[in-house]
Amino acid sequence: MAGYVLAIDQGTTSSRAIVFDESMKIAGVGQKEFTQIFPKSGWVEHDPEEIWGSVVLTIRQAIRKAGIRAADIAAIGITNQRETVVVWERETGQAIHNAIVWQDRRTASLCEEMKADGLEEVFTAKTGLLLDPYFSGTKLSWLLSNVEGARARAANGELCFGTIDTYLIWRLTGGKSFVTDATNASRTLLYNIAENAWDEELLRILDIPPAMLPEVKDCADDFGVTEARLFGAAIPILGVAGDQQAATIGQACFTPGMIKSTYGTGCFAVLNTGPEIVPSQNRLLTTIAYRLNGRTTYALEGSIFIAGAAVQWLRDGLGIIRRAEQTGTLAESADPEQNVYLVPAFTGLGAPHWDAEARGAIFGLTRNTGPAELSRAALEAVCYQTRDLLDAMHKDWKKAGSETVLRVDGGMVASDWTMQRLADILDAPVDRPTILETTALGAAWLAGSKAGVWPDQAEFARRWACERRFEPQMEESVRAAKIEGWNNAVRRTLGGL
Predict the structure, then answer these.
(1) At the topology level of CATH, where does 4-243 sit?
(2) pLDDT tens digits, residue range 395-408?
(3) pTM of structure
(4) Is 447 exposed, middle or buried (0-12, 13-18, 19+ CB in 10 A)?
């Protein structure tokens, strides 16, 4: 059998499909952006049909560009935006409402009500998550309450709920497979991560009928077979993981203590804690890193809402740069005597603060502050926020030790200046891999290893290659002063202005 593997990377703003060859090199790529829908302030939706159309289109593009046939593909792996919710009719496959996206904040008041009732501890103890609109459970409850007749239809078994992976698998298999994997299930607020099962008490609290929930499988497992009519051949789907977990796998972070950080629109850092469930005392998330061969590996995760989005704001909001790549050059030329701090709380602050009311602020402006200083502040904000996450991780899990090496991926890591500043602020080495498509690679490895055409876990980890290591170079006194300035800026931002 040929060793080609197809990865579907269904993200927040675009869908991508990547064909990898037997050497795990990229052979063909397809990409399509889709519409972001903002019905009200704080609400974010996607059209499931548009997502489905974009996925089919990009798969066909990738196969064509790779110069192969669908029959040459041994397996498909899927990775996806995680907490986004779709509900559809079991009979027709039609969604009953737009998908409610992970960024959506419409259930903030419901979360606050449940917190006031003392329920956050119940959810956190079972799921490792905080009671926040970010996660799927309250979004699903809202849909069932606000689409006429939905809850009754769900109880009768007429409706299906899924994160995007489940919806795509359903469509790809012609409704034959109604499944998800443990990583996506662990982000719903409905899944007991210790028992690896949907939790009856949590379903009861949110009034969600169990009949609408998918079967939960390992990350490398049999998820069904695509309909032959779609691409010209039936292809088995053998790997699924949420995007941040897939990146953890793609970075070969298989050993407890290893940390990866992905820099896209936001930033997500994940620390492998092995078979141990580590409850966070610092408002990090305890979650499932992956489940392979029935064995669950857990993780601590920290989420930063704004990373690359701060650079986009400089470009699109302020118009002070034309291209994102300019920020590194500008930052390098910034006045070293100016201490400008940008706290990018445009949609509140994520971990470890979780302050939905915080708003963005800039401190330290002078008459001489210009595009260079603002560019440096935007890039440094990512570095400071990463340090906050890693500090919280080390407090939660003492076994992490002090010798942290951070493996990085995502669009921002192409900037040498940013990666050097990250190493300086962390006071720890930063490793940039040769393959930056780590999320898609992780999904592909799950599928390829399951199909028997790609290497096993140990060999895959051995083949992981570092393109460049950035070592800290900043003097300790400079680092300490910078961090003190950042902490002061954050304190002044918390709770809103």
Answers:
(1) Nucleotidyltransferase; domain 5 (3.30.420)
(2) 998 775 556 789 99
(3) 0.90
(4) buried
